[in-house]
Amino acid sequence: MKKGFKVISFLFVAFFVVAFLAACNSSSTGGSSKGVSVGIVLPTKDEPRWVQDEQRFKDALADSEYTTEILFSQGSSAKEKENVETLLNKGIDVLIISPHDGEAAGAAVEAAKKDGVTVIAYDRLITNTDAVDYYVTFDSVAVGAAQAQYLVDNTNGSGVPLYLYAGAASDNNAFLFFEGAWSVLQPKIADGTFKIANSSEATALQDKSELTRDEMSKILGQVTTNWDPNEAINKAQTHLTAAGAEMKGDVAILAPNDGTSRSIADTFAADSEISSYIITGQDAEKASIQYIIDGKQSMTVFKDVRTLVKDAMGMAVEILDGKTPETTGTYDNGEIEVKAKQTDVIVVDQANVKEELIDSEYYEASEFTGL
Ligand code: BGC
């Protein structure tokens, strides 16, 4: 089944690449150099995840004369709005944007819509506005569920101390990841397999199989990393200092992404009362692939950015051609149902790291040691 899916995705991707290159040629032969056609705005250069997206966009655009421009918002909604305005002034028809703050980005995309620009939210949804046309994303609920399932499958016995960490509350994905994780962890907390070590809010809610957004906000308020590795270290240190001996030993850690996972892992590894830990991640960042090879991070969720880039650019080309892009579902952004195209994710650990990331030519073997 997986193989079939891969063939279909390959054909799908190949189709868009051809369509995309065709559109590139036609727009350049028209000779109407009216500036930039597709503007791309990414949240920050400070995390390898987004630098990777930039590179994958550049790779996808390398052989074309298609006019695109990529700008980074550096974790600032004001800078993000400025970036959108810069691109609007360059005459873009399509905006592909991954917001720093999903709600605050509403103002920027509303300005784009006023200009007649089609808005594609990329990886992160823009919330509480009707000014977003499409959403290209990974299955983020599945990311959280896969992380949690890994903890369930790789811990033994009962009463395993469980440390919960989450992403930034300004990022809608942080809720989707947590929702997915909670759906798998909650029954295992209820049956005594895990005991929550670091969140009184989560403990208070541990009998609820589904949490409202407000309830998740309360938990995130205690365990957010804000997607910041340094904040993750500080939180982990505080939690370990507060934890009694019964919350040490062999532990499980839900870490939301690779950047925070490495720093939380290092913090736990440095505590002499922690005998072993299983820790999650996501993004398949190079540094985390090395950590997995070295046995310092247990798993990551591989989100093939090449697919996301091709889907987003494929959509942009269809829009420029006056066609309606194909979508596979919708996401409620609090104001409207946004038409979405969703991509699957792959769990990677020591057992399949070579097959999924090297054999698939995502990375080169020479980038790692001890493979
Ligand atoms: C993305 C993750 C990323 C995180 C921090 C999320 O919205 O989906 O891939 O690790 O933001 O940048």
Automatic annotation (TrEMBL):
Keyword DNA repair: no
Record GO cellular component, one term: outer membrane-bounded periplasmic space
InterPro entries recorded: Bact_Solute-Bind_Prot2 (IPR050555), Peripla_BP_I (IPR028082), SBP_2_dom (IPR025997)
One Pfam family here: Peripla_BP_4
Signal peptide range: 1-22
Subcellular location: Cell envelope
SUPFAM superfamilies: Periplasmic binding protein-like I (SSF53822)
Protein name according to UniProt: Sugar ABC transporter substrate-binding protein
Organism phylogeny: Bacteria, Bacillati, Bacillota, Bacilli, Bacillales
